[in-house]
Amino acid sequence: MCVTIRRATIDDAKQISELIVPLTKKYVCPTWEQDAHHVVLESMSAENVASYIANDYYYLIAEDEHQSVIGVACMRDFSHLYHLFVAEKHQGKGVSRLLWQRLKSVSLKQGNQGRFTVNAALNSEQVYAKFGFKRTQGVRKCRGMVDVPMELTVADKVI
Predict the structure, then answer these.
(1) Is 62 in contact with 86 (CB distance < 8 Å)?
(2) Model pLDDT for residues 21-74, shown as the tens digit of each residue
(3) Can you say how many angstroms the Cα of residue 136 is from the centroid of all Cα atoms in its chain?
(4) What is the pTM assigned to this prediction?
(5) According to the model, what pLDDT value does residue 66 have?
(6) Which of 68, 75, 124, 129 shows a CA-CA span of 20 to 30 A to 93?
(7) Phi, psi (5° rounding) for residue 64?
(8) N-acetyltransferase domain: which residues (predicted)?
(9) If we measure between CA atoms, which residue out of 109, 107, 110, 56 comes closest to residue 118?
């Protein structure tokens, strides 16, 4: 499989939303209270994603050989991993690792001193653990949303 990773533009917002909303409904929402679903899903609308891209959230997309978006990653403030999603048929093939490595590299070049955070969905904690993230506290529940706060400190900041 040939994967191309590039920085997302506002024109990619619709495709990004179309990828991440169904994955969130399937994998994240079942672990949350029903009343919280609309909050996260609305935050992933094409309009909101376009706004994030326009306001300094750094989005990367992974495309297959047909230029279809198969993965998305986003970093806020070059320190907080905000989104990391891969289309189901491409999961387990290293796409999330490629996206994460590129985001980490860009963030370090942009001045990150080697500290990254993520609020992991319950079923994605193991993915982040493979990248070196560690829990900073136990499972957290706030306003019906459930996550696991995690952190990664990169000792060797070689880019």
Answers:
(1) yes
(2) 999 989 887 887 888 787 888 889 999 999 999 998 999 999 998 889 999 999
(3) 18
(4) 0.91
(5) 87
(6) 75
(7) -85, -175
(8) 3-155
(9) 107
The C-alpha angle 42, 103, 89, rounded to 5 degrees, equals 65
**What residue spans define the domains of the chain?**
4-153
**The architecture CATH gives domain 4-153:** 3-Layer(aba) Sandwich (3.40)
Query: Are the C-beta atoms of 96 and 84 separated by less than 8 Å?
Result: yes
Half-sphere exposure of 2 (CA within 13 A, CB side): 3
In the chain, the percentage of residues whose pLDDT exceeds 90 is 74
Determine the pLDDT at residue 157: 55
Tell me how many degrees the CA angle 48-50-51 measures, rounded to the nearest 5: 60
Total H helices, total E strands in the chain: 5, 8
